[in-house]
Amino acid sequence: MNQPTHLPANDRGDDSADTAYRQPPHNSEAEQALLGAMLVNNEAAQQVSEILTAEHFFEPVHGRIYDAIQRLVDRNQIADPVRLRPFFEHDEALAEVGGAQYLMRLASSAATILNARDYAEAIYDLALRRKLISIGQDIVLTAYDADVDDSGVGQIETAEQKLFTLAEEGKSDDQAKPFHQALAVAVGNIEKAYQDPDKLSGVTTGLQALNDRMGGLHPSDLVILAGRPAMGKTALATNIAFNAARRFLDDKQRDVPAEASKGAVVAFFSLEMSADQLAARILADRAGVPSEDMRRGNISKDQFDEIARASFELEQMPFFIDDTPALSIAGLRTRARRLKRRNPDGLGLIVVDYLQLLRGTGRGTAGESRVQEISEITRGLKGLAKELHVPVLALSQLSRMVEQRENKRPMLSDLRESGSIEQDADMVMFVYREEYYKEKEKPTEGTDAFLKWQDEMQNLIGKAEVIVGKQRHGPTGTAHLSFLKESTRFTDLADDSHLPDRF
């Protein structure tokens, strides 16, 4: 059995000697009653299997008995004191409380089958309290004996991460999942995609050509969207984020459950643009008014009315912007967790603009390279996607090597610090607009070269490519889109069937 936790009386505000020792919260009688119910009627084991694991029991021997019962039930075998006896013949802890006879006493003290779930809930709650005490002790000790490189803010972020994990772990601890459990989730996702009219298994991008390529943005995935300056990567990320938020709002207004929606509550971490600049860009897109005219106030009354209408529409969007500059990966994780915890609808999509503006924890050596820091950041983003079970869309710069090639379509090796980014990402996409490069090649007007250039430009104006260079869930390829430069909006082409696939 576990030994009591010893706390001095003066630390508890209690000077009585007979209360100088305090045990962690537990209820051994409840554990015994629950195990007895499971031994008498194995249906109780099935009722509580989603609530408890062996680690939730205060008495280790009770945890081992629980685990043995569940293993027999999983094999469709009867779990009773007689069948369990061989498993515990040499168990020293069980011998201390009466050996095999203890199993018989458990069965005789059984709670009724109707109470099994209530007992399990009580045991689980006490296990949470013990973990909370452990976390609290760790926080105190860390604050007293902190490393010189570990800042107070960093300690707070670490503490908040532990508390968030404890709050979010649901009815089971992090542990290896049986294959049948993972298989059931996979089949459920396939069924949802099969029954969905959009044939999506993830969050919609709002762009059919892109959805067809990737099936939407999938939970737990780290998606990298890269491009050279002026290609429109921020515009595309903003469009995707807005489309996801709007779909979530539309579904909510149609009483579609949040878990069934193909939209998402969006957290947009804008490390480059301020919140008002990003909001103005989205407003220009929705109002159909050039952002440059909006910024200068060069608009008509009709355009102003359209802006007011679009503003009213956008106020309802489940779209959150954090424009904190020089944010660390630890700070981003903390803010994302906090948003998911506080928002009634949770969180469904995280966008980071952009990757290279994030900071690492700063705990490495003084000579730590930028590549190592980026590696820490990408691992952190991937870990966050898995932890919160949401897709993370992170923008990334490309190296200048692109500009030195005749064919300027980007490839995986063009990613800055490409090793860690390419390795950690589940999907890598590149935004490419040939129009941008062709425009720079404009020859002298009136020449044959100019006429040829003009014809080529005519076929390129307003067209963009999103090149899927890596995808764990499917093939690579290219989605052809339309780009409206004035409102920085990406849309589907009216008919892109004539455009060849470059892969």
Description:
This protein is of the alpha/beta class and 503 residues long. Helix content is 47%, strand content 10%. It is built from 19 helices and 9 strands. The chain has helices at 28-40, 43-48, 60-74, 81-84, 92-96, 100-108, 116-144, 152-168, 179-195, 208-214, 233-253, 275-287, 291-296, 301-314, 329-342, 370-388, 418-424, 434-439, 448-460; strands at 222-226, 266-270, 319-322, 349-353, 392-396, 427-432, 463-471, 477-484, 489-492. A 9-stranded mixed sheet has the order 3-2-4-5-1-6-7-8-9, with helices on both faces. The longest helix is centred in the N-terminal third of the chain and has 29 residues, at 116-144. The protein is elongated. The chain starts with 27 loop residues before the first helix and ends in an 11-residue tail after the last strand. The model is unreliable at 1-19, 170-174 and 495-503 (pLDDT under 50).
What's this entry about, in short?
The chain is of the alpha/beta class and 503 residues long. It is built from 19 helices and 9 strands.
Fold blueprint:
Blueprint: H1 28-40, H2 43-48, H3 60-74, H4 81-84, H5 92-96, H6 100-108, H7 116-144, H8 152-168, H9 179-195, H10 208-214, E1 222-226, H11 233-253, E2 266-270, H12 275-287, H13 291-296, H14 301-314, E3 319-322, H15 329-342, E4 349-353, H16 370-388, E5 392-396, H17 418-424, E6 427-432, H18 434-439, H19 448-460, E7 463-471, E8 477-484, E9 489-492
Parallel strand pairs: 1-5, 1-6, 2-3, 2-4, 4-5
Antiparallel strand pairs: 6-7, 7-8, 8-9
Helix pairs in contact: 1-3, 1-6, 1-7, 7-8, 8-15, 12-14, 15-16, 16-17
